[in-house]
Amino acid sequence: MAGGSRGAARWAVAAFVVANVVIVEVLFFTAGPGKNPTLTVAKFFGVHAALTAAVQVLLVSRLPWVERRIGMDRLTGWHRWVGFALVWTVLTHAVTVVLGYSALGGESAGATFLSLAAVPASLLGMLAAALFVGVAATSARRVRRRLRYETWHGVHLLLYVALLLALVHQLLETTTFTASVVAAVYWWSLVLFAFGSLIVGRVVIPVRRNRYHQFRVSAVVPESRDAVSVYVVGRHMEELPARAGQFCVWRFPGHRHWWKANPFSLSAAPTGRGLRLTAKAVGEGSAGLRGLKVGERVFVEGPYGAFTSMRRTRPGVLLVAGGVGITPIRSMLEEQPVGDQPVGDVVVLYRVRDQGEAVLLREVRELVAARRGRLHLVTGPRAPGLPSFDPAAVHALVPDVALRDVYVCGPPAMTDTVVATLRTLGVPKSQVHTEKFSLA
C-alpha cells in the first residue's frame, strides 16, 4: 500500500504534465502560425517555456500530499533538471525571435535585437531570460560548491523576479496566450494554480503552523564532543503531522538571522509532546546549536520527506546509516514493534570512522535489542570505495537482503555505493529508499 501511495503520486505528477503538454500543443496549433517559419518556431518554444516555468514552480511548492509521497530530495532533483530545460527553452525562444524578426525586417541580428529591446514586452522577456541564465549558472555544480548557501539562495531568489517578468511579458504578448477565450482562461488558471500552490506550501502552511504551535527550545543536550540534541516543544504538538524519518527546516532567530535555515532530521519519533533534532558541528549553523537558550523561539518548516514507513513493502527491514545519517534511522527504529517480530527482522548497519563518531550509539543499541534485531557497527578509515559496503560484505552480514526493504541515509558517496551494491545483490528498486537532506 505504501509503494502504491508513492506510485500514485508519481502518476499524478506525470498525468498533470502530460495533460498540460497536450493542451498547450492544441492551443499552439489552433492559434495559427507566426509571421514567418522562424517566428512560428519561436512561438512554439515560448508557450512551452511558459508551461515549463509553471511546472518548475509547482515542484518547489512543497504541497504536503505530493511531498510526503515523493520526497523533497527527489522533487528538488526534478526541479534542478527542469530548471536547466527551462533555460535552454527560453534561450531558444529568444534566439529564434531575434532571427525571425531579423529575416522579416531585413536587418542584422544585432540591429534587430536593439530594436526589440525598445519594445516593453520584449525587454521584459530579455531581462527574464538574463536572470534565468544567471541563476542557472550559479546552480552549476562547480559554481555551487564555491558559494555559501546564503549567497546561492539569495541569487536563486531572483528566479521569482524572472518569473514575474516572464509573466508580464506573456500577458503583453497577444498572439498565442490570448488568441481565444479558452487560451486566456487556461493560461490564467495555470498561473494562478502554480503560484497559488507556491504561496500555500511555502508561506501559508508554515506561518499558520508556527503561529498555532508556537515552537520553542525546551532543552539542549550535548551528545558527544561535536554533536548536540535540541528538544523542541509547543502547543497542540499531538496535531503536528510528523513521522519518524522525516526532517524539518529549522530557523533559530535568536541564534542566527531569520533567513538562515538548516535541514535537520528528527532524531526521535514524534510523540505528540515534542520534537528532537540531533546535529554534528560541521558548519556555522550546526556548530552554534550548543548556545541555544531554553525558551528560545523556533521557526519550523515541515516536517518534510518521504523517508518513512509509508514506503514499506516487506516485513523485514535493513537500515543503513553513515555518520550523522543515523538520526532518521534511530527515529524509525522506534516505530518498529517491540519483541513480537521474528529475531533479526530489523537489521542496522551503522558506518562510522571510529566508535567515538557513533552518535546516539547507546540509544540505537537499546532500540535494536528491544526489537530482537541485529546491529552491525562498521568502522574504519574513510575511503572512496568504502569496501565495507561491497556486495560480498553486505551479503555476509544480511544474507536475505533481497527480501527486505532497505533504508539508506548518509553522505552522498556512501549512499551511492550502497545503492550500487544493493542493485548488484538483486534488491528490487522499489525496496530501496534513500533521502538526501539538503535545501537545494
UniProtKB/TrEMBL annotation:
Membrane topology according to the record: Multi-pass membrane protein
Chief subcellular location: membrane
Compartment(s) of residence: Membrane
Pfam families: Ferric_reduct, NAD_binding_1
Domain FAD-binding FR-type: 210-310
Cofactor: FAD
Record keywords: 2Fe-2S, FAD, Flavoprotein, Iron, Iron-sulfur, Membrane, Metal-binding, Oxidoreductase, Transmembrane, Transmembrane helix
PANTHER family: 1,2-PHENYLACETYL-COA EPOXIDASE, SUBUNIT E (PTHR47354:SF8), NADH OXIDOREDUCTASE HCR (PTHR47354)
The protein's name: Ferric reductase-like transmembrane domain-containing protein
